[in-house]
Design a protein that fits this description.
This protein has 160 residues and is an alpha+beta fold. The chain has one domain (40-157): minor pseudopilin epsh fold (3-Layer(bab) Sandwich), CATH 3.55.40.10. 30% of the residues lie in helices and 24% in strands. The chain contains 2 helices and 8 strands, in the order ααββββββββ. It has helices at 16-36, 40-66; strands at 71-74, 78-82, 96-99, 106-111, 117-119, 129-135, 138-144, 151-152. The strands form 2 sheets. A 4-stranded antiparallel beta sheet has the order 3-2-1-5, with no helix packed on it. The protein has a 4-stranded antiparallel beta sheet with strand order 4-6-7-8, covered by helices on one side. β6 (129-135) and β7 form a beta hairpin. This is Type II secretion system protein GspH.
Length: 160
């Protein structure tokens, strides 16, 4: 009687370990891609903040040189600077109403409390002021200590 070795059955499919490794690789790739995608609202809001900061500092400098106080206030459509001359002979580019770059942007003065205006001079040292910008679920705070320029405040420093 001849004894033949039992034929080994061929493996079909994947082992559990192989499936778990593939799932882990897919999970890591998905996490990496989702973290790498920028938040477009955040980028747009940062652009608005940089623009507003430059405009506030420009108005502050004009207020100091002219000796006339300049006020910034948010409006439903954007914002405006009050106190700048708007003569026909020499129109001031900051005077008048300005729209936000993103129509859904909103602004609110949060310091000093109970006011809707920022006072931008004419004194070299103004009071500490903060304005909160919001676009969708994102928000940023522009702040000055009264001596330095308006800058984006760190997130931990965003509360008045």
């Amino acid at each position: 009687m001849s004894h033949q070795p039992a034929m080994r059955q061929t493996q079909q499919g994947f082992t559990l370990l192989e499936l778990m490794v593939v799932i882990a690789i897919i999970a890591l790739a998905t996490a990496t891609v989702s973290l790498a995608l920028p938040d477009s609202n955040r980028d747009r809001l940062e652009t608005e903040a940089l623009r507003l900061s430059a405009l506030l500092e420009s108005a502050r400098a004009q207020s100091r040189t002219s000796g006339v106080p300049v006020y910034w206030r948010a409006t439903p459509e954007g914002f405006e600077f009050d106190g700048l001359s708007s003569r026909k002979e020499a129109p001031n580019p900051l005077a008048g109403m300005r729209a936000w770059l993103q129509a859904d942007t909103q602004a609110e003065v949060i310091q000093p409390a109970d006011t809707a205006n920022l006072v931008l001079g004419p004194e070299p040292l103004i009071t500490a002021q903060r304005v909160q910008l919001q676009l969708g679920s994102q928000s940023l705070v522009l702040a000055t200590d009264g001596l330095g320029p308006f800058t984006v405040a760190p997130p931990t420093d965003a509360q008045p």
